[in-house]
Design a protein that fits this description.
mainly alpha, 2 helices, 0% strand
Length: 60
């Protein structure tokens, strides 16, 4: 298993954890859904292009 594959697996596991601990509050659920989506997208990026770059706004 490469580092990229491991990172993608960990990101997907974290997304699943967020889904599991989602609260009953509608606002909380929407926030959790955004985190799940973010983690799954990051996993795809790491798998598809492990050496790719992302422009971070506000980063120095």
């Amino acid at each position: 298993m490469t580092h990229a594959e491991l990172a993608a697996k960990l990101l997907r596991d974290a997304a699943e954890l967020f889904r599991t601990v989602r609260g009953p509050d509608e606002g909380s659920s929407e926030r959790v859904d955004r985190f799940v989506s973010l983690y799954l997208n990051a996993a795809d990026l790491v798998e598809d292009d492990p050496l790719g770059t992302v422009e971070a706004s506000g980063a120095d």
